[in-house]
Amino acid sequence: MNKLFIAFFLFLLISHSAFSQSQIITGGWVFDTESKSFKKNQGIYMINGLFGTGNENITNWQVRNLKDDDYILPGFIDLHAHYRISHEGKAFDDTVAMPKIFLANGITSTFPAGEIEPDKMWALQEAIDRGQRPGPRILHSGPYFGTAAPDWDQEITEDQIRQRVDEWAKRGAYGFKAKGITADQLRVLIDQAHKHDLTVTGHLNSGYRNSVNPQEAIEMGIDRVEHFLGGRLLADSIDAYQSLKQLDPADPRLDEIIQLYIDHGVYFDATLATYGAIGGVDSPVFFDFAFEELYYTPLADRVIKANEPSAFNELCAQIYPVKQKVLKRYYDAGGLITVGTDRPFLLDNYLGAGIGGFFIHRELAAMVEIGIPAADVLYFVTQQNAEALGIADKAGSISPGKWADFLVIKGNPLEDITRTRSVHTVVRGGIIYDSQSLKNAAKGKLGPVE
């Protein structure tokens, strides 16, 4: 009985670290997404889970004071947030450790970019919304559209695709993810999603073996593209990964596909750092600042330590410097960039060190390392990600009427982007969480069990 009581007490401590209907946060510095700079915090008002103006007729404000070295950022939005774990050919979405780790790192909203078990993820979101579990907002993508979905029928009809979109749109999906899809199927998906004012993102290819090149998808009206810019420089005679390895980032023809993105207002989620992690690249970006093995289950820890380097690890090590130069060129041209971690926990095909929630800080640092200013990178992971998903009226900045989501770190990240790793407080919907308590609750729980 004592153990049950202690467990229940700890749950309450983590799930409702601090909540009041009306709160004021004073002190510290706050990131202004319009000027992309920090300003002295004159008071952040939170009322019933939303940011307020301070002009509300409220007399019983609860006041919390921050220190002068505290820096406040709008809640991070991860547009490629995998909850997926796989082992021995079986895949499942983790609802135990991943939600806590995402939230502990300041990620207050996640777009799963394809769910293996969408019903399970919906149940998780409902439990989080009821305050029964700590975690970020799950901005559902529903199931994959394409062969990445366990239930995908390659002979699926146009009507069935439209019905699949309608079903998940009705349930409240925020957008859809295509992977392993044909051009005809993608065209239908985009058309039907847009009828619901929902966006579509895609993990596409080079055009090899009936796959879709991003250039073709952009002409169809896709909203976001992941991993590969595409275009004529990706030879359709080989897979995109192999083609990218051979790409010359200085090739003038790259301007064509970059301009196509700009002309159509399409966002590019490069998932840059994940390729460096998979490739085992030696860079301070990939320093294990969190001692991540502490979060693995004993079985996951043994499997990871027994892993041998694969051909894919070597391939990603070759791809990474190409992606770095391509992304910088895309940025310099004015292309729209989003931020996503893309870190499924695949024990059968190990993707190198880096758990999704912690990895957001590596993705930000990887962008700064190639010459993108920290101010822009922080804008991408907040306001620009919100705009890309179509939720800028709800998230992305600390503004009246939006979700009361933010994180507090130590030190100015514009001077050193790695300071985002120092998250100590996270607020989601007006509920204040202690980051370390969330992390402690996730230790030893990530991965399959015996």
Describe what you observe in this structure:
The chain has helices at residues 2-15, 98-104, 118-129, 158-171, 183-195, 214-220, 240-246, 254-264, 272-278, 298-306, 311-333, 356-369, 374-389, 435-442, and strands at 22-26, 29-32, 37-40, 44-47, 50-51, 62-65, 70-74, 76-78, 84-87, 90-93, 107-110, 137-138, 175-179, 199-203, 224-226, 267-269, 336-337, 345-346, 406-410, 425-428, 431-434. The protein has 450 residues and is an alpha/beta fold. The chain has 2 domains: 2-74 and 399-442, Urease, subunit C, domain 1 (Roll); 76-389, Alpha-Beta Barrel (TIM Barrel). The strands form 5 sheets. It has a 6-stranded mixed sheet with strand order 3-2-7-19-20-21. A 5-stranded parallel sheet has the order 13-14-15-16-17, sandwiched between helices. 50% of the residues are buried. Residues 1-20 form the signal peptide. It holds the Pfam family Amidohydro_1.
Task: Evaluate the radius of gyration.
Answer: 21 Å
Q: Which residue ranges are poorly predicted, with pLDDT under 50 across at least 5 consecutive positions?
A: 3-17
Biggest sheet character:
6 strands, mixed
Q: On the 0-100 scale, what is the average pLDDT?
A: 93
CATH domain class of the largest domain: Alpha Beta
The count of β-strands is 21
Instruction: Give the CA-based shape.
Output: globular
- Label the CATH architecture of the largest domain: Alpha-Beta Barrel
Largest beta sheet: what is the strand line-up? 3-2-7-19-20-21
How large is the count of helical segments?
A: 14
This entry's quaternary arrangement is: single chain
What gap, in angstroms, lies between the N and C termini?
A: 26 Å
Strand content: 15-25%
Q: Briefly note the CATH topology name of the largest domain.
A: TIM Barrel
